[in-house]
Amino acid sequence: MSSYRSAFRPGLFDGQVVIVTGGGSGIGRCTAHELASLGAKVALLGRNPDKLETVRAEIEGEGGEAACFPLDIREEPAVEAAVAAVLARFGRIDGLVNNAGGQFPAPLAAINQKGWEAVVRTNLTGGFLVARACFIQWMADHGGSIVNIVADMWNGMPGMGHSGAARAGMVNFTETAAFEWAGCAVRVNAVAPGWIASSGMDRYPPHMRDIIRGLAEHVPLGRLGLEAEVAAAITFLLSPAAAFISGTTLRVDGAAPNFKPHWPAAKGKPAPEWDAFPLASKPSVLGEG
Ligand SMILES: CCC/C=C/C(=O)SCCNC(=O)CCNC(=O)[C@H](O)C(C)(C)COP(=O)([O-])OP(=O)([O-])OC[C@H]1O[C@@H](n2cnc3c(N)ncnc32)[C@H](O)[C@@H]1OP(=O)([O-])[O-]
Ligand SMILES: NC(=O)C1=CN([C@@H]2O[C@H](COP(=O)(O)OP(=O)(O)OC[C@H]3O[C@@H](n4cnc5c(N)ncnc54)[C@H](OP(=O)(O)O)[C@@H]3O)[C@@H](O)[C@H]2O)C=CC1
Predict the structure, then answer these.
(1) pLDDT in tens, 205-230
(2) What b/e string do you get for 44-53 counting C-beta neighbours within 10 Å, with b at 16 or more?
(3) Enzyme class, one word (predicted)?
(4) Best residue among 104, 122, 150 to mutate for probing ligand 1, ranked by most atoms within 8 Å of CB
(5) Model confidence over 3-20: pLDDT tens digits?
(6) Which domains does the chain have, with CATH numbers?
(7) Considering 100, 153, 260, 269, which has the largest number of Cβ atoms within 10 A of its Cβ?
């Protein structure tokens, strides 16, 4: 792996196999590159096979190993089959990055039952199904590490009521699974990204672009986060450095929930150079410069 520059030791994940859901874009794509650059074989799961195939080709072009398993994480039989297919292909599953997720922005009063359930199944049920399949089919007998990606929506977030409810559920699932599966040497943690300049931000409608650009003013560190900064937190939790950490949720948010609107903000440092993360995607919503 020549061009991806990781902060971690080369070969840290040699011989290991990690599933990354939502591996075809954004944070998932960046995490897949990070793990592959450290020696892991990466199983890419997501709905769109073309996106997965593009990332597989990127990783293999860098000398890594990856394979694609298209599915909708909300469909139990498809999840069971995909995890079985990963085991058939790679023979083991050491880690799971439960990253697939997302939502449409809408006030609570504009969300009908179908929309609510689409988002809850995406951000809660689907993650549970993938984690349970990995546990039953492999990790219960061999141990492993699971990282669930949630979102920094503490104390509620307007327009994200369905997603926030599902993420809160995922945090609680993380805590219960950490307890129930500890006896099988399975660690379960969560990472809660704040406002991250991921390619996923380009899914939001045009009228939200100014809001997204202005979010940095409400982050004490003075900027949006980068996909690579979330990937690094995930990698830490998967690694032996986190061997005694389970059941926790690690915030990656520039201290956003600590922002006090009536208190003068410390001046943030300039954003890091995008060039430092050659494979991170800069969303067009941020514009140039
Ligand atoms: C700090 C936090 C910041 C977070 C940032 C990120 O997460 S960045 C990451 C960003 N990345 C992502 O978000 C990626 C993943 N997100 C997705 O794939 C979709 O947002 C999904 C979760 C809805 C699932 O998709 P799907 O194909 O399963 O769903 P579908 O399209 O078929 O809709 C199902 C139903 O939902 C309803 N409904 C939908 N839109 C609206 C609306 N605007 N208004 C009202 N309602 C709406 C409607 O009922 C619809 O049914 P209908 O009326 O059509 O019969
Ligand atoms: N960017 C941000 O500021 C924040 C992001 N997050 C969360 O981080 C995660 C990654 O988001 P990000 O990279 O920014 O955005 P993306 O939209 O790029 O990533 C979401 C990924 O999830 C996959 N996905 C969505 N639904 C399903 C499904 N039902 N089955 C399988 N795969 C699915 C998508 O693949 P496909 O298109 O192929 O279905 C896509 O690759 C998400 O859970 C997001 O909500 C949390 C907080 C903040």
Answers:
(1) 888 888 888 898 899 998 999 999 99
(2) bbbeeeebbe
(3) oxidoreductase
(4) 104
(5) 667 889 999 999 999 999
(6) 17-257+265-286 (3.40.50.720)
(7) 100
Percent with pLDDT over 90 in the chain: 80
Instruction: Write the ipTM.
Output: 0.98
**Within 13 Å, how many C-alpha atoms sit on residue 90's CB side?**
24
Q: How far is the CA of 2 from the centre of ligand 1 (A)?
A: 37
In Å, what is the CA distance from 56 to each residue of 8, 145, 151, 203, 278?
Answer: 21, 22, 26, 22, 17
* Ramachandran sector of residue 130 (left: φ over 0; alpha: ψ -120 to 50; beta: rest): alpha
Residue 201 pLDDT: 84
Whether the Cβ atoms of residue 62 and residue 37 lie closer than 8 Å to each other: yes
Tens digit of pLDDT for each residue in 228-253?
999 999 999 999 999 999 999 999 99
Q: Which residue has the higher pLDDT, 25 or 287?
A: 25
User: What letter would DSSP give residue 196?
Assistant: B
- Given this model, what pLDDT does residue 289 score? 42
Specify whether the CB–CB gap between 147 and 101 falls below 8 A.
no
Paired tokens of 71: 């599915």
CA 21, CA 117: separation in Å to the nearest integer?
Answer: 20
- Find the residues whose C-beta lies inside 6 A of ligand 1: 102-104, 106, 110-112, 114-115, 118-119, 122, 151-153, 194-195, 200-201, 203
The packing angle between helices 126-134 and 161-180, to 10°, is: 20
Residue 4, pLDDT score = 65
- In this prediction the pTM is 0.95
Q: In the chain, where do the E strands start and end?
A: 17-21, 41-46, 65-70, 95-98, 144-149, 186-193, 249-252
Nearest CA to ligand 1 atom 45: 111
